[in-house]
Each structure stands twice: as C-alpha cells, then as structure tokens.
Amino acid sequence: MSAESVPRTVLVCMPWHELTRPSLALGVLKASCAEHGVAEPAAYYANLRWAEVLLDAGLTVDDYRSVSDDGFTHALGDWVFAGALNGPDFGIEQMADYARQHRIDLALISCMRGLADDFVSSVAREVLSMGPALVGFTSTFSQNVASLAVARRIKQHAPEVLTLFGGYNAEGVMGVTIHREFEFVDLVLRGESDKTFPELLGALGSDPGDLGAIAGLCWRNPQGAQRVNAHRGAPVEATDMHSPLFDDWFRSYDTSLVSEFTEPELVLESSRGCWWGEKHHCTFCGLNGSTMAYRAKEPSRFVAELDHMVRKHRVLDVTVVDNILDISYFRTALPAIAEMDVDLRLHYEIKANITAEQAATLRAAKVWSVQPGIESLVDDALRRMDKGIDGVRNVRTLRDLESEGITVEWTWLYGFPGEGEDDYRRVVEQVPALIHLQPPGESSRIVLQRFSPNFDDPATGFVERRPAERYDPVYDLDRQVLADLVYDFDTPAQGLSDEQIAPLDAAIAEWQAHYSESSLLRHDIDGLLIIRDRRFGWTAKDYVFADPKERETWIELEHGRTVRGLQRTLASAGFHWDEAELTAWLAEQLAHGLVFTEGGRWLAVATTPGGIERSIVRPEQPEPVLLRLEVPI
Q: Hey, is 614 helix, strand or coil?
C-alpha cells in the first residue's frame, strides 16, 4: 500500500479524556499504520486545549477532573457540549430539573458550557488547518457529544472532509446509531481497529475503494443509504497488538499550560479481553462488548515494550489498562519487571484471588496500585455477580495487599435481584474490625449497562429499562433512538432499598474516616505470635499467642478455613481441637475483631509488616505506633 495514496488523516481526542496521559487508542492506531506501511496520522489532543481554555477562564485542572470523573454518572461533561451540538438553548431546562432532583450545583458546568461553542469552532479551525481529508474521533465515556459537535462544525466548514468515529461509544448498535442519526458522521469503524483502520485508509486512497470489505464499518453508498459491514470473525491476536506511538501527545503536553499543574503518565496494555469473563461474565459488567476473548502479549515482549517506553519518554508512572492481569505474568513478566533498574509506579487491574506470595510479587515489580474487582464482602451478593470468589477471599486480598503497601481501588456494589438484608447485616457488623484495611471508595447501586448479562437477559431481573434520564438534556433524540445509542439504562431498583443499605453506607463512612489512623499488625518474636491492635474504635492492646496450638491455628487462619478444615489440617500437624472448643476460641477472636467470618469460613485479618510504615501519634494514644501508609498514585 502506497503511503502517498492514503488520505491525510488527523485523529482527534476530545474532552473529557484524562489530561495526564495520552490516548492509547490513538497511539495504537498510529503504530498500526506505521506497521502496515500507511502514512502515520497526526494526533490532535483537544482535551489539552480545552483545559487551557478553562485555565484562561480562571478555572482549574481540578475543575476539569471534577467533571470528567465525578460528573460522568450524571453526563455533566456531555451536557457542557450539548449546546454546541444541538443549539445554545438545548437541554438547559431539562438539566435544571435533573440537577434539582439530584442536588447538583450547576454553577461550574454552566460556566464551562458558556465557553464550549467558541472552543468547538476553534478546534474545527485548527484541525482543518492541518489539511486533512479524513478526521477521526476516538469516543469513550464522556467524549461523544464534544466529538459530535466538532464533527458537525468540520462538515459545515469543509463538506469534502470525511469524518470517522470509533471507540467504545461506537461499539455494536451504538456505532450504527451514531452513523444513522448524525448525517455529518460519514464513517463509523466498530470493534478493534488495529487492522481495519489501515485497511480503511487504503480503501479510501484507492479508486475505487472497496468499503464493503472493511469489517465493522458503517458507511453510505453513492445514493446515501447506510451500509453496515459485519464484524471480523476473530479478534485481533496478541501478536498484532502494537506498541503505541505517543510522540504527538508528549509534544502537545510539554508545550501545554496543563503540564505546569500535572505530571505525565504512560498508558500501556499487556492484554485484551477478560479470561474470567470468557468463563463467567460478571452479571453487571458491560465491558468487552464484542471482544471478551482473552489475549496477552508474550511476557518478554511486554517487558521490553515497557522498558523502551519508560526510557524513551522518561516517565515512571504507568497505567496498564488491561481488564485483568494474565495469571502467568506472576511467573514471567512481573519478576522480569522487578529486575528493571528504574523506579516504576505501575497500576494494574487484577482478579481478587491472589495469594500473599503473589501480592509480594506485585510489590517487587513496582506495582503501587491495583483494582482487584472486589465489589463486595457478602457471599450471596458475590454469587449473584458470578464473581467466582467469596467474601473471605476478598478480605484476604485486602489484607495481603495492605501488608505489601499496595494501594487498592474498589467499590462496594449492591442492588442485585434477590439479595437479602440479613446477608448484609452479618457482614456490616464486622466492618469495624477491618478498619485497618483499605476501604472502598464508595458504595454504589449497580447500573444496568449495555453488553452486560443483566442487560442481555431480562430474566436476571431487570425487565423494565429505559435510557438513563441523564441523557435527556444531552441528545436531541427520542427515547427509542436513545435506546440504541447509549450505554447506561435506568431500571427499577433491585435488591436492598436505600433505607436497608444505610447501615453499610454509615460503616463505610466510618471506615474511610479512620483507616489512616488504624493498624492491626502481626509480629513473630522468639516463638511468640503477637497481634498489636491500634485500630480506631478498639482498645489498644497486644494479643500474645504463646500456646503452640493457638499459634499454628492462627497461621492456618491466615489462609481462610472452615472449622472442619482447621481441625483436619491441624490434626495432621499434631494439634487437636475439639469442635466445640475450637468454635468457642474462634468466637473469642471474633469478639476481639481479630478474625472475619462469612459463609462458614474464618480468616485472620492482621497484616504482616513488610510494606511502607511510618510513625504517627494518635490523639488518644500518646506513644508512637506503626501504621501502614497508603501510597497515593
């Protein structure tokens, strides 16, 4: 394919993409074009330009983030650009009503909305000044409306320039709907585009080009009729997942005012899909709509890529965006990363069934934060999610990651059809004992998301559904059309009521408030097992286990055991417990908050020194005590 025959292409990343990292999608597409001998597209980071506009208006980077992050659940970022897309008065009254219902202060986003129209025009002018024949938009989360607004403006100024949409907002029927409803969108490329994007550029550069051969493409024939090509049968192989090219972003970031208020990060991928989801798709999860098949890069290749990117761009903070870490990496890639002579700070998503040894491997490999998909500590709720894990195992993971000083990001989910208040009460009563472990960021009722089993199978309990109300002030489309365009849906609340979940919310609030001043540490000193309790709400005390049988019982409890399992394992080591005696001993430890129990299993919850520690003084405790320090990312 001749590079000269390919149309000049500009790829655009609109707000509200994260300011501190490049777009992985743009970087991969640029690399894919280079690999296929196609002229490398230019990348235009309009999100950085938007942040500069906000800074010039007296707003801050934190204001940007408050909309991009916290505002996502209410489509506030999309609403900021809804006037530029649909007309200046569109959605104002609807958003005012919505904001009153949800107690949202509109002052900030109203100020931003006043800047949006001029910004959209300036982006269109700057992109067109680059001389493109094709302008592509990557659209994920809250990028859709801003991207549509600029695409419309580009077509108004230069009708001959083709516009292209891709990204997760264009997955499946959503992409078909974008193409059908917005006539200024000429092309939509659905699904993984590593191969199809260079193929599309080649077809557009040919005379005539065969657009009908491009898998996943939505296009129009000469008569203007929509054509929708089927997806490619097989997903992109791991060998075809290219190392991204981020030079455009670093040039833009380094010269942007944003760089004075932030630090850059790298974003990479070592795998795609979800190996757990291939077996058991979590019922609430709408990720991996058409690409669940799990594929991981060969470990040495990923390690080499990581080393090259870090040294090339001189950036040590790296977010790996995999949905789930390849379990084989604990034996291969992670030990190799641990040997790298650079002081990395990695973030990974993992499954919450890791061992203490695997937690130590993560820490040695410079993994500073993880998102382990814990979701709940209630066995019944976890079964309804089809998580393949139980509450004891999740607490064990929290304990072991805390021992290694690794930051844990998780949300406690609820709202599953059939869940019971009694199941929650039993666990919530034990939350104060876990106050030394990292709390969830929040509790949240699950949302009905497209592509999730809950969405695809109404028999799961979510029969009634409509496009989420927050989209009404954003899109000038009727609900029937919105039902094919949007990702989230409103549905009658299932499971626990807001009143029934209030005790959990109160327990989490207390947990969040006092985690940083709490510790429960296990020490082994001269054959004694000592548990040093300095948790908020508990009497400061050192528990000493001198009896060898009790000491061995505690060690077994660190794995999570049933009473029968404890008896059997300890008996093989020569320690015998009567069932009633062991049950009473466990009840005593439960009263002291030293163990957690759920589903008939028991777990020791004290952490083991080995992560980062510091000395603090608690107001009610004048002597210094050791505390696990959560390292921020």
A: strand
Residue 628 pLDDT exceeds 50? no
Distance of alpha carbon 197 from alpha carbon 395, whole angstroms = 44
Partners of 488 in the beta sheet? 449
* Residue indicated by tokens 């508990």: 538
Beta bridge partners of 562: 601
CA distance 437 to 431: 10
Q: Which of 229, 169, 173, 227 is nearest to 196 (CA)?
A: 229
Give pLDDT, residue 613: 39
Residue spans of alpha helices (H) in 103-169: 107-128, 144-157
Residue where the block lists tokens 């235009």: 44
For residue 373, give the nearest of 483, 277, 270, 463 by alpha carbon: 277
Smallest Cα–Cα separation from 325: which of 356, 349, 293, 294? 349
At 370, which amino acid appears?
Answer: V
Beta bridge partners of 453: none
Among 224, 504, 474, 487, CA closest to 378 = 504
Distance CA 468, CA 482 (A): 9
Question: Integer distance in angstroms from the first to the last C-alpha of the chain?
Answer: 43
DSSP letters of 482-521?
A: HHHH-SEEE----SS-HHHHHHHHHHHHHHHHHGGG-EEE
Q: What is the predicted pLDDT for the residue at 614?
A: 30
Of 395 and 290, the one with more pLDDT: 395
pLDDT band of residue 622 (cuts 50, 70, 90) is: very low
3-state secondary structure of 476: coil
Q: Identify the CA nearest to 290 among candidates 374, 181, 174.
A: 174
Residues 490 and 469: their CA atoms lie apart, in Å, by 7
Res. 627: pLDDT tops 70? no
pLDDT of residue 291: 83
Phi/psi for 532 (5° steps) reads -100, 110
Helix (H, G, I), strand (E, B) or coil at 431: helix
Distances (CA, A) of 45 to 86, 464, 526: 23, 40, 60
105 Cβ contact partners less than 8 Å away, ≥ 6 residues apart: 99
86-106 average pLDDT score: 97
> Which residue carries 């000429």 as its tokens?
186
